[in-house]
Amino acid sequence: MAQFCKQCGTAHAPDARFCDECGKAVNAAPVPSPAPAATPALSGVKRRQVVIAGGVLAAVIVAGGALAWLLAPEAASASSFGRAIDAHLAADEAARDKLLCFTNLPYQKEEIRVASYDSSTRQWLDILVRGGLYNAPVEQSSGGWLAQSQFVYALAAPGKAALRGDKLCVAKGVKVAKVSGYEQVREMGGRPTAMATATLALSDEAAWLVKSPDRAQILQRLPGGGLEVQLPLALVDKQWQVTDRAQLHQAAMAMAGAMRNASGAQEAGMLDKLKSLFRFGGHPLVGKWKGSTGKILEFTKDSIIENGNASTATFATEGNVVTIVSEEGSGMAMQISLSNSNNVATLTVGGMPVAVLQRVRD
Questions:
Q1: What would you report as the CA-atom Rg of the chain, rounded to the nearest whole angstrom?
Q2: Which residues lie across from 186 on neighbouring strands?
Q3: Which of 246, 314, 313 is nearest to 279 (CA)?
Q4: Closest CA to 223 of 104, 113, 131
Q5: What would the pLDDT profile of 84-125 be if each residue is shown by its tens digit?
Q6: pTM of the full predicted structure?
Q7: Share of the chain above pLDDT 70, in %
Q8: CA distance linking residue 179 with residue 80, whole number of Å
Q9: How are the residues of the chain apportioned to helix, strand and coil, as percentages rounded to the nearest 5?
């Protein structure tokens, strides 16, 4: 079949390489088209690099946020306060036993003898008899010229098993069920501080208590006054921890002194004006009071006596709150809130409860 030159239209043989008329190359091997550029593959690599870089950046941002969260101080909350109190009671056996154990009688003895007129002790032991810890009492006479009737309570086998040393304990541990005080954080000695009130729940409760018909009454008689405790907390190393009352008290005293000095610098004679509002005379604090550390604080109608040192003070009473201004030392002002029975008082400085006082009866 004849073929024609595309340049001039002259026919040429099928195997001709050039046109005989115009010399244009015919039947030339097709020139291979250039290979496609590697741009798409390169774009894929770049895309992966971008994705990887973005992932690294995101990881850095997340890690930085996590690090900032770890380094941030623990917030005051029910969970942080509950954790701090749980840790304190788990680590401090003495503090835990003080809440959970009775030491009012020599429980380690095989027998406890009670005079017939001691109705309070007999009532308590009768509760333990109903709980199976003691056998029913046996009445005996003390003999002698002044013979007296007494009741002998013998320790039963369940009672021996319930003892921990010389203490009668209702459980092995406690957990915080409810806590408050995190809403009232204050600076004390340059450190965030609060007084927490925790309602506790027993953990690993003693079998005898579970079965006792007087369980509620027994819990109310616990040394701490039931399953509720007040503890001072401070932010230490960015975590809330139970702190020592004495340290909190010292910090409160220092803060009161600083407040007094600052107010004095702003207005000379302010303390004198404040004291003019107070009156001398009788007030419900008169007498001796014992703090949680065992120290005795005594109030007279016009002075405070601590460790044998007396300082003159003025007192003002409004309801169950007594406000005190010491005329010596730092000239601090503090308030003491009394319970309805006037036998328990809470010492407050700068709005922060720092100590619980118990009236000492002579």
A1: 43
A2: 193
A3: 314
A4: 104
A5: 999 999 999 988 998 999 999 999 999 999 988 889 999 999
A6: 0.55
A7: 71
A8: 10
A9: 30, 35, 35
